Amino acid sequence: MAYSEKVLEHFKNPRNVGTMDKDDINVGTGLVGAPECGDVMRLQIKVNPETNTIEDAKFKTFGCGSAIASSSLATEWLKGKNIDEAMKIDNMDIVEELALPPVKIHCSVLAEDAIKSAIKDYQIKNGKLNLVAETHS
Amino acid sequence: MQSKKIYLDNNATTPCDPRVIEAMLPYFFEHPGNAASRSHPFGWEAEDAVDKARKQIADLIHADDKEIIFTSGATESDNLALKGVFEMYSRKGNHIITATTEHKAVLDSCKALEKKGAEVTYLKVAEDGRINLEELEAAIKPSTILVSIMWANNETGVIQPVAEIGKICAKHGILFMSDATQVVGKIPVNPREMGIHLMAFTSHKMYGPKGIGALYVSRKDPRVKVTAQIDGGGHERGMRSGTLNVPGIVGFGAAAEIASKEMIQDAERLSKLRDKLEQGFKERLEEVYVNGSTEYRMPHVTNISFKHVEGEGLMMTFNQKIALSSGSACTSASLEPSYVLVALGLGDDLAHSSLRFSLGRFTTEEEIDQTLDAISAGVNHMRDLSPIWEMYKDGVDLNSVSWSAH
Questions:
Q1: Which of A44, B88, B231, B295 has its CA 20 to 30 A from that of B115?
Q2: Which of B319, B384, B403 sits opposite A35 (nearest CB)?
């Protein structure tokens, strides 16, 4: 239960908490996790279609301190990145930055999933993703 | 004042009452004897102290002092009762009945016995946390030797119908063992009256020191024996060898005597504070649920779910200041929430959202007021952050969402 300073800081002062209009064509929404598992993250990005750059990011998370810190950090990192750069954010980068212990690595995995899921949602809405044979639940 | 830490985890362990510590102190240096040393005054003094404590403990539970077997704690007492009965009565049968909400010391002892040929029935509990007596009776068969049902649950404080269980066991000639760890010293307990033949309890849940517990073993009607699980000098009527922990036993005895005098007034005061806590949360917050029976329960415990808030995260908002437990087990590798709450039929989401408040002799009303403020603020903070709280407020049916379980 010993949390790192960085986790505590993000937990107490989470960045970019909020909700965007999920029907906005420029907004991508990722909702991952499940209440029964004790973690649900919703991460949203707003993309400038001209530059393909993430102009804003917001999150809300149901979960432990590490889950909240991971998603808060993810929104900070996403802002200003283009889609290709954002796709490269790896969960281990989050683990390292927040000094997450092994039992909390799943929080970082969930944050990476949320990022990818939000990007995918944006791409699908904008016809930028080939959906053939794509099945996801 | 705000910086003072508040302890609401008395079901985990209680602070040692200063009067208990005072009683123990002479037995570390002034009276260092081994109670089994029969040949000199040091031994006699130790033996006298142990005899006195045994009487104090026996008086608290209205038992004969010869019915108290000292152990290292309730876990050992549970192990001794279950394994000791299984070995001692193996000729009579191999079937044990227990419940899914028992403490791990009972459940894991049963699992160990299953590997040695025991057959174990695990009774389910209803939504209120209590077993069904008809199911209990239906589970009894000719090979049943023991029923092991706890008096009150450690996570919810729910009290089982022990008197009725005792009657059923007597009717079928089966031994009844009860883990009374959370009960002894908190409310009046009389195992003989309840038809309990073996009863586990411990000092450190009743304001005594850690490392000392007891197993009550009925000596008459019926005379029960258990096979020792620790062999050695034949202490404790051959049921538990090992040099007696004299200072611990003296402390346990002092704690028992204090409890005999004060537990009823403590219980009345704490049940009022517990009610104030529950009422306060319900007035300040939406979607607050008390888990388990509110009719049959211990006076000092409440287990509350704050819907759409994850318990461990919630605890982080106040755990520098307030100590309590969560039913969420986010830190464990399994990610499984409390098996006790799940057994009550709570969804995993509500189980993850639960906090256990266990009050104690040293809890003050001011602390309860501070707790209400701090935790209500924490719940609001977490709900502001919670996507499922937002969905709930927007009228989304959360059961209709296809979650990605991970």
A1: B231
A2: B403
User: Residue B276 CB: number of other CB atoms within 10 A?
Assistant: 14
Q: Which of B347, B362, B310, B304 is nearest to B331 (CA)?
A: B310
Q: Contacts of residue B390 in chain A, CB cutoff 8 Å?
A: 19, 60
Alpha-carbon gap, residue A89 to A42, rounded angstroms: 17
Tokens of A29: 């929404």
> Which of B308, B333, B403 shows the shortest C-beta gap to A33?
B403
pLDDT tens readout for residues B3-59: 589 999 999 999 999 999 999 999 999 999 999 999 999 999 999 999 999 999 999
Write out residues 28-87 of A within 8 Å (CB-CB) of B: 31-42, 60-65, 67-68
CA nearest neighbour of B84 among B237, B224, B207, B209: B224
- Residue B110's H or E segment, with its range, is helix B104-115
The interface predicted TM-score (ipTM) is 0.87
What residues of B are labeled active site? 330
Whether the per-residue pLDDT at B183 is higher than 80: the answer is yes
Pairing of strands B301-306, B288-290: antiparallel
Residue B332, token pair as written in the block:
């464990």
pLDDT at A133 over 50: no
Cα end-to-end distance, chain A, whole Å: 33
Residues 109-128 of A with CB under 8 A from B: 109-110, 113
Q: What are phi and psi of B325, to 5 degrees?
A: -115, 155
Q: Rounded to an integer, what distance in angstroms lies between the CA atom of residue A54 and that of residue B234?
A: 75
- What share of chain B in percent tops pLDDT 90? 88
Known catalytic residues of A are 37, 107
Confidence of residue B402 (pLDDT cuts 50, 70, 90): confident
Residue B252's nearest CA partner among B105, B76, B64, B59 is B59
Contact call for residues A44 and A29 (beta carbons, < 8 A): yes
CA A129 to chain B, closest CA, distance in angstroms equals 21
